[in-house]
Amino acid sequence: xxxxxxxxxxxxxxxxxxxxxxxxxxxxxxxxxxxxxxxxxxxxxxxxxxxxxxxxxxxxxxxxxxxxxxxxxxxxxxxxxxxxxxxxxxxxxxxxxxxxxxxxxxxxxxxxxxxxxxxxxxxxxxxxxxxxxxxxxxxxxxxxxxxxxxxxxxxxxxxxxx
Length: 162
Description:
This protein has three helices and twelve strands, in the order βββββαβββββααββ. With 162 residues, the chain is α+β, with helices and mostly antiparallel strands. It has a single domain (4-72, 115-161), classed as 6-pyruvoyl tetrahydropterin synthase/QueD (Tetrahydropterin Synthase, Chain A, 2-Layer Sandwich), CATH 3.30.479.
């Protein structure tokens, strides 16, 4: 019988500050604003002969790197059916409901998500963490839960199961 345990990671430096807007419909979006997001992970894995799951510093570092990759950018939903993105030299323009929203390209990160919400961001983290099936197998990981908080008491989550 395989024994499973859950490691919970919610470190002070698993955070990022980013700007965004949420798309509510094909014609309605929020104004540009930002959040100090925090990330929580619960990783369920098999315990080994030493009574531990795996070296979870690996996942702490990966989560820190992912957070850092998002920090201090304006995040744009690259997979939204309700907007298009145009690159022109140093600028990136987002076209939404007859608006042409200009950004400096160096300030923007386009993510492969439908919307910049805590729900979609948690799914993005899951997708990044589960890209390497061999790593998941190596560490005996059965399940990952990610929560992304946009502030205290407000989060969205996504889950991956073997």
